Amino acid sequence: MINITLPDGSVKKFDAGVTPMDVAMSISEGLARNVISASFNGTTVETKTPLTTDGSLILYTWNDKEGKKAFWHSSSHVLAQALQEMYPGIKLTIGPAIDNGFYYDVDFGEHTVSDKDFKAIEDKVLAIAREKYEFTMRSATKAEALEMYKNENNPYKVELIENLEDGTITFCDHATFTDLCRGGHIPNTGIIKAVKIMSVAGAYWRGDEKNKQLTRIYGITFPKQKDLTEYLELLEEAKRRDHRKLGKELELFAFSAKVGQGLPLWLPKGAALRDRLEQFLKKAQKKAGYEQVVTPHIGQKELYVTSGHYAKYGADSFQPIHTPHEGEEFLLKPMNCPHHCEIYNTKPWSYKDLPKRYAEFGTVYRYEQSGELHGLTRVRGFTQDDAHIFCTPDQLDEEFKKVIDLVLYVFSSLGFENFSAQISLRDKENREKYIGTDENWEKAENAIINAARDKGLNTVVEYGEAAFYGPKLDFMVKDALGRQWQLGTIQVDYNLPERFELTYKGSDNELHRPVMIHRAPFGSMERFIAILLENTAGNFPLWLMPEQAIILSLSEKYENYAKKVLELLENHEIRALVDNRNETIGRKIREAEVQKTPFMLIVGEEEEKNGTISVRRHGDAGKSNQSMTIEEFASLVQEEINKTLKTF
Question: Which SMART domains match (predicted)?
Answer without folding.
Answer: tRNA_SAD
